[in-house]
Amino acid sequence: MKKGFCILLFFPLLFFGCKSYDEQRDELPDHKYKGSIRISADESFKPIIDEQIKVYESQHTATRLRAEYKPEAECLKDLLNDSVRMVIATRYPDKDEINFVADSLKKDLKSIKLALDAIAVIVHPSVSDTLLTMEELKSILQGNFKKNLIPVFDGVKATSTVRYIVDSVLRGDTLTSRAMAARSSVGVIDYVAQNPEAIGFIGVSWIGNPEDPAQLSFLKRVNLVYLESTDKPGAYVGPYQANIYLRRYPLVRDLICMYKENYKGLGRAFANFMSGETGQLIFRRAYLVPAKKNFNVRPVRLKQ
Fold first, then answer.
1. All residues at 6 or more sequence positions from 291 whose CB lies less than 8 Å from its CB, including other chains
2. Contacts of 188 (CB under 8 A, 6+ apart)
3. pLDDT tens-place string over residues 39-70
4. Among 180, 184, 185, 302, which residue carries the largest CB count within 10 Å?
5. Alpha-carbon gap, residue 273 to 33, rounded angstroms
6. CA 137 – CA 144 distance, rounded (Å)
7. What residues does each domain of the chain span?
8. Domain 27-116+254-290 annotated CATH 3.40.190.10
């Protein structure tokens, strides 16, 4: 009798002491279906991140993803001073940043490669010579080119575009002091469209989607520069999807998502969304190259 009595008492305690998954989830400050977080994203990715957020929020109407667009270095500062949960950038965190987040913020810093992006080069519509080798591009950036072209960026420091140009094109050489800074990628397009001596550098997500009316309007105001292919000397290619995927276009970079959460929160959920089927399809339709899903290039023979 005593043994049976104890068993009967145990089951009610077990029943009333356990919470359902939904109850536990609702006690979190945010999760996949509910809550609000702040994101710092590199300004060059604004069109595509805006689209990702729009679709995610339409599927999860009780969530709010508040993105602020700024230079890449400022995004990393936000991550380290713990003012944002997630950063969208063009590089992975280094060991010092990972250790700082772990030691000082007591959080794990995760990173995911979401897509391949490229830097597009644009000139005034009056410029007819739109073919450049990488050596010619480098001489422009150094201020030594035969034509007096002024490089224009979305900022002259702290941006992902400038960092990529300095690290991957100049490789330690000095950027010309004549380089100019616009307030944004749209500012770069506006300046180049009005000044024949300017040559602009912007993320391809601003002008790479031929199905976007806004981007088509930008392309009507500037000319796109074709750069010498990485795999075939004498051939010139634009920053189009297949050329980015095959890395035939020489100015290709990664799009990286970093987030810090010690639980299954909204940041992790949004990162998983962007790396999942729907998010990767959004990147593909925006004419970037998805990093998590297969992207097939098929040869096509055109009949004359």
1. 113, 114, 115, 116, 254, 255, 275, 280
2. 122, 152, 153, 154, 182, 200, 201, 202
3. 999 999 999 999 999 999 999 999 999 999 99
4. 185
5. 12
6. 10
7. 27-116+254-290, 118-252
8. yes
Question: Do strands 236-237 and 150-153 pair parallel, antiparallel, or not at all (unpaired)?
Answer: unpaired
Tens digits of residue pLDDT in 224-263: 999 999 999 899 999 999 999 999 999 999 999 999 998 9
Contact between 193 and 222 under an 8 Å Cβ cutoff? The reply is yes
The continuous run of DSSP H or E covering 65 comes out as strand 62-70
118-252 CATH pick, 1.10.260.40, 3.40.190.10, 3.50.50.60, 3.30.465.10: 3.40.190.10
Domain 27-116+254-290 shares a fold with domain 118-252: yes
Mean pLDDT, the chain cut into blocks of 10 residues (304 residues total): 46 48 60 96 95 98 96 95 96 96 95 97 94 97 92 88 94 93 94 97 91 89 96 95 96 97 94 97 95 66 48
Contact 1, 50 (CB under 8 A): no
- Measuring CA to CA, which residue among 42, 40, 46 is closest to residue 286? 46
The packing angle between helices 72-80 and 95-104, to 10°, is: 30
Token output for 72 = 């890449």
What is the torsion angle, in degrees rounded to the nearest 10, for the CA atoms of residue 254, residue 259, residue 264 and residue 267? Answer: -80
202, 120 contact by CB (below 8 A): yes
User: What pLDDT does 168 receive?
Assistant: 94
Predicted TM-score (pTM) of this structure: 0.85
CA distances from 146 to 92, 141, 236, 249, 264 (A): 37, 12, 20, 24, 56
Burial class (CB in 10 A: 0-12, 13-18, 19+), 7: exposed
